[in-house]
């Protein structure tokens, strides 16, 4: 619990600035506080710090915990609170509406989940009022978009392992949303927004009401909200992004596949284009290589760029170009600009709580939370197909090309196309969550000590529907493009295909196929996935003081929890395969052309799966005062242990030992904690994750050609929990008598996670086989499969480890009545320095990879958030800066110029350029109180409309703002 002096610090933190319990004043104030800062003890006793289960007055948890107050949330004026939290420097790699937009098959579009310390969303535990929330996808991660947001009083972010206190998944830390369970009155918020490019139109309506009855014993609270963001994109073929954004340069990291000629193996080039397909089709190998087709189907000689000339050999080599790519030339067929930059998202949530005080300080309550989130995105333009074989006798081949076939003595040619004649694919998701909690909590006396208890049962249900529109069935497409003339009509060549409805299509040009032909290769009923997840939690916790041994009361918290997680998912038979759970039907009829084992779609081949596990655990936490004197100050030690039994992997222990020392020096506190944390394998990792991904340009190193391959993920029931060791030590200097209102904290952290559950990437599997490093991976793929789609099976193992370390720094100062003006001027800055972020795959022949400072990822060396605000009773103005440092594409690369490069190796590959700039973003906002009940506000994000840095992976929304300047305005009211 926080004392009145800590509440005073939180009071000023509630101004538009980030706050951390580090810079707050010690529990026993070392300097007198102004009278208006004082908070009565009853109020102080209701503030519970997320970093510990101990609920004792004057206790300060040793784990750094950042707190974001309601006013900070409001001043940031985001349509989703998720965006406010992810601005904290300690959050790295969170997912959101700008991530996963290029994916058809992941099903995670628009999923808003946190990642602390860059350890991934699956290693960050997200809670509501200290209670677990059912996962929104099979990985178990929650979707913050489904949370009730208007009634959130504050958000606590525990920067460090907390498994001993909160259980599995809290390896990176905990994000806890604290709601106003006894709100009284009516309040609401109406907000709108738009980008400077005229897209991503935003609307937000929120309303909450609360009232007490029967002498303040019955408390009823309810809220609802509707939010909609239109999203951004897609752009057209070529280099045109949505809304006239002009930063896309088709930057590509090209592998020359030469390691020992004195030049870099990898070269970075803008305006690179693959030379095995074009927008409306290209003959990509053989004697006719280089003949392209325009929208009207007329042949012309393709402009390769790089002064490239077709070698006209079977491999499809282009003289003067890099392997697989030329630079410049005709870029009209580029497909990457068709990616949605930000998914469209629509949120609808409802929340209610009824609490009854059956005795003083004892309550029985029931809460419900119902939420729905819908998203839509376009993964890419077109559905490119390379390496197709077109017969010269095909009646759609122009006569001039047929004549050239005859002259060259060939009967067929190799062909590639972006399939721009077909509609672009759309992905829609619909997540619905139903969460119910019933519980008892309160206080009682035991042996002259105050004790608290909290017992609850939670039932969570999540339904996720993923539907894909306008996507082709590969086997039908293959048959439809193979046409002949029969009885004077153009028909599909295969009689079995004709008997099953095949309609021929002409892919040499941009003529739209007939409605019947399109419906046959892209049926109205496309890929789908239906996921159901349930979570049941029963929890009982106690906290109190055992005895006082002179230095202070020895406090204890203990409890037990039972949890059960379950999921099942089914998909369409064309993608998952025909099975009892995914049978053929009128919508998906039997078709002898399609594989009964699935993987028939171009992308979106979702799989069936199911699984469950249960967890039993108990914990004990102590706070033991060591001394308390004017001479030596005050110190305590805070140990905790948790034993957990998983039905899948047995028993495991988590623990922590921490402590704080409020030194006799004015305002100085030393703190530290070390812990053993765990993350159990999730349902997906154990029981066959239902995900497939189409890799449209995957390199087959044996033939040195790019192919389309399907990556399938399969589960591993033999996985064991990951083990994390987390150590933090730091100092806090808060509210010294010589400068009241000033606070600064510095914390060093070091985390090592072993037995990391990680899957070998598709490229790793192929590479480890190709280089004969791990021959057992050779059976996991086939990139030249004549009997079906090329495939790569990916599975998870406890192979890897992650090690990261760095510093967190926070400083703040509040100047009251600056220059004699009414109100307060507040300065606050937060920074995280990532010294290292080393991932070791644990595989033979590989080296650990340090990605700290790699700006294609999520872990720059420095990430900073600074806020300056002035506020009085009438208005406020806030200026915010977001910044991260310059970085590179990878620390493993050796930069060198042609003629000076060493031999390039897998551990130290050579490259000609390895720099990716950081970014600085300026945001401004303000409020004006029209009355005590009504406030107007505005916010401008990315004032200078700073473009994202060029990246070989299109763009990196994990670090960069890829949307541009955004304007928002609204009005809040409270009665």
Explain the overall architecture:
The chain has a 22-stranded antiparallel barrel. A 6-stranded mixed β-sheet has the order 1-2-5-6-3-4. It starts with a helix and ends with a strand. The protein is built from 12 helices and 47 strands. The protein has 975 residues and is mainly beta.
Approximately what portion of the residues adopt beta-strand conformation?
35-45%
SSE-based structural type = mainly beta
Which radius of gyration do the C-alpha atoms yield? 30 Å
Assembly of the depicted chains: single chain
Global geometry: globular
Mean pLDDT score:
90
Percentage of residues in helical conformation: under 10%
Low-confidence runs (pLDDT<50, min 5 residues)?
Answer: 1-47
The main sheet comes to: 22 strands, antiparallel, barrel
- Count of discrete alpha- or pi-helical segments spanning 4 or more residues: 12
What's the β-strand tally?
47
Terminal CA distance reads 30 Å
Which key features would you list for this structure?
single chain; 975 residues; mainly beta; 22-stranded antiparallel β-barrel; 6-stranded mixed sheet; 12 helices; 8% helix; globular; disordered N terminus
Summarize the structure.
The protein contains twelve helices and 47 strands. The chain has 975 residues and is mainly β.
Secondary structure topology:
Layout lengths: L3 H10 L5 E2 L20 H4 L20 E5 H7 L4 H5 L38 E5 L2 E2 L19 E7 L4 H4 L6 E7 L5 E11 L6 E12 L4 E12 L22 E4 L10 E4 L2 E3 L7 E4 L5 E3 L5 E3 L7 E2 L7 E2 L5 E3 L16 E16 L2 E16 L7 E7 L7 H10 L3 E6 L8 E21 L2 E21 L4 H7 L2 E4 L2 E4 L2 H5 L15 H7 L6 E21 L4 E19 L1 H4 L32 E21 L3 E14 L3 E13 L5 E12 L3 H4 L5 E9 L4 E10 L7 E13 L7 E18 L2 H9 L10 E2 L7 E27 L7 E17 L8 E2 L11 E10 L3 E10 L9 E2 L14 E2 L7 E11 L4 E8 L24 E9 L1
Parallel strand pairs: 3-6, 34-38, 43-44
Antiparallel strand pairs: 1-2, 2-5, 3-4, 5-6, 7-8, 7-47, 8-9, 9-19, 10-11, 12-18, 13-22, 14-15, 16-17, 19-20, 20-23, 21-22, 23-24, 24-27, 25-26, 27-28, 28-29, 29-30, 30-31, 31-32, 32-35, 33-34, 35-36, 36-38, 37-38, 38-39, 39-40, 39-41, 41-42, 42-45, 45-46, 46-47
């Amino acid at each position: 619990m926080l004392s009145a002096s800590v509440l005073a610090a939180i009071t000023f933190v509630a101004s538009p600035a980030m706050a951390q319990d580090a810079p707050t004043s010690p529990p026993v104030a070392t300097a007198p506080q102004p009278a208006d800062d004082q908070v009565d003890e009853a109020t102080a006793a209701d503030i519970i710090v997320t970093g510990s289960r101990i609920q004792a007055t004057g206790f300060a948890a040793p784990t750094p915990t950042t707190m974001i107050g309601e006013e900070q949330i409001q001043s940031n004026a985001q349509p989703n609170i998720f965006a406010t939290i992810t601005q904290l420097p300690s959050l790295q790699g969170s997912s959101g509406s700008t991530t996963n937009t290029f994916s058809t098959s992941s099903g995670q579009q628009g999923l808003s989940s946190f990642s602390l310390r860059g350890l991934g969303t699956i290693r960050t535990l997200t809670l509501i009022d200290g209670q677990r929330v059912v996962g929104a996808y099979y990985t178990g991660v929650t979707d913050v978009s489904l949370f009730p947001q208007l009634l959130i009083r504050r958000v606590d972010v525990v920067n460090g392992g907390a498994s001993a206190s909160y259980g599995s998944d809290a390896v990176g830390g905990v994000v806890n949303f604290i709601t106003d369970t006894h709100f009284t009155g009516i309040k609401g918020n109406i907000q709108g927004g738009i980008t400077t490019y005229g897209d991503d139109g935003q609307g937000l309506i929120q309303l909450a009401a609360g009232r007490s009855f029967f002498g303040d014993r019955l408390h009823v609270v309810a809220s609802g909200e509707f939010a909609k963001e239109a999203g951004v994109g897609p752009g057209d073929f070529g280099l045109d992004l949505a809304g006239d954004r002009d930063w896309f340069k088709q930057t590509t990291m090209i592998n020359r596949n030469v390691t020992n000629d004195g030049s870099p193996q990898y070269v970075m080039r803008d305006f690179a284009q693959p030379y095995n397909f074009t927008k409306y089709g290209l003959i990509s190998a053989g004697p006719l290589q280089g003949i392209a087709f325009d929208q009207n189907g007329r042949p012309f000689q393709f402009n390769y760029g790089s002064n490239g000339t077709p070698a006209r050999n079977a491999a499809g080599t282009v003289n003067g170009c890099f392997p697989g790519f030329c630079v410049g030339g005709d870029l009209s067929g580029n497909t990457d600009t068709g990616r949605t930059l930000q998914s469209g998202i629509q949120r609808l949530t409802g929340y209610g709580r009824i609490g009854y005080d059956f005795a003083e300080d004892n309550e029985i309550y029931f809460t419900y939370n119902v939420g729905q989130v819908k998203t839509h995105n376009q993964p890419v333009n077109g559905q490119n197909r390379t390496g197709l074989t077109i017969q010269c006798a095909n009646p759609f081949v122009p006569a001039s090309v047929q004549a050239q076939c005859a002259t060259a003595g060939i009967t067929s040619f190799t062909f590639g196309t972006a399939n721009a004649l077909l509609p672009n694919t759309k992905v829609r998701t619909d997540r619905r969550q139903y969460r119910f909690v019933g519980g008892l909590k309160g206080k009682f006396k035991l042996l002259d000590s105050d004790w608290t208890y909290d017992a609850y049962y939670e039932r969570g249900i999540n339904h996720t529907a993923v539907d894909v529109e306008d996507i082709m069935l590969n086997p039908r497409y293959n048959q439809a493009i193979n046409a002949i003339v029969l009885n004077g009509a153009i028909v599909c060549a295969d009689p079995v295909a004709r008997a099953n409805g095949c309609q021929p299509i002409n892919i040499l040009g941009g003529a739209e196929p007939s409605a019947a032909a399109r419906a046959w290769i892209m049926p109205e009923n496309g890929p789908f996935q239906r996921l159901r997840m349930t979570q049941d939690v029963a929890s009982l916790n106690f906290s109190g003081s055992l005895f006082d041994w002179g230095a202070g009361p020895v406090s204890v918290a203990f409890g037990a929890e039972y949890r059960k997680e379950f999921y099942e998912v089914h998909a369409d038979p064309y993608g998952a395969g025909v099975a009892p759970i995914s049978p053929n039907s009128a919508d998906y009829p039997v078709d002898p052309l399609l594989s009964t084992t699935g993987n028939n779609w171009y992308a979106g081949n979702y799989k069936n799966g199911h699984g469950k596990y249960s967890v039993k655990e108990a914990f004990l936490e102590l706070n033991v005062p060591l001394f308390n004197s004017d001479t030596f100050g005050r110190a305590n030690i805070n140990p905790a242990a948790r034993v957990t039994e998983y039905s899948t992997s047995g028993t495991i222990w988590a623990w922590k030992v921490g402590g704080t020392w409020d030194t006799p020096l004015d305002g100085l506190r030393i703190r530290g904690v070390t812990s053993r944390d765990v993350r159990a394998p999730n349902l997906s990792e154990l029981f066959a994750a239902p995900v497939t991904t189409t890799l449209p340009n995957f390199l087959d190193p044996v033939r040195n050609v790019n192919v389309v391959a399907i990556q399938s993920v399969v589960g591993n029931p033999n996985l064991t929990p990951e083990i994390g060791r987390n150590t933090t030590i730091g100092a806090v200097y808060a509210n010294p008598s010589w400068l009241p209102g000033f606070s600064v904290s510095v914390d060093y952290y070091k985390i090592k996670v072993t037995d990391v559950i990680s899957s070998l990437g598709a490229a790793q599997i192929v590479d480890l086989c190709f280089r004969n490093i791990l021959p057992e991976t050779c059976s996991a793929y086939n990139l030249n499969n004549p009997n079906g789609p090329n495939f790569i099976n990916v599975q998870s193992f406890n192979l890897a480890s992650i090690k990261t370390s760095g510093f967190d720094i926070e400083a703040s100062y509040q100047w009251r009545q600056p220059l004699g003006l009414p109100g307060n001027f507040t300065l606050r800055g937060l920074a995280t320095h990532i010294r290292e972020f080393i991932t070791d795959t644990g595989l033979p022949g590989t080296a650990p990879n340090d990605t700290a400072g790699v700006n294609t990822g999520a872990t720059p060396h420095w990430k900073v958030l600074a806020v300056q605000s002035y506020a009085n009773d009438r208005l406020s103005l806030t200026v915010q800066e977001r910044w991260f440092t310059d970085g590179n594409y990878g620390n493993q690369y050796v930069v060198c110029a042609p003629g000076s490069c060493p031999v390039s190796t897998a551990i130290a590959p050579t490259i000609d350029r390895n720099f990716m700039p950081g970014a600085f973003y300026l945001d401004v906002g303000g409020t004006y109180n029209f009355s005590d009940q009504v406030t107007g506000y505005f916010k401008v994000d990315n004032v200078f409309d700073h473009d994202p840095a060029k990246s070989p992976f299109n763009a990196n929304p994990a670090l960069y703002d890829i949307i541009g300047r955004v304007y928002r305005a609204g009005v809040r009211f409270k009665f």
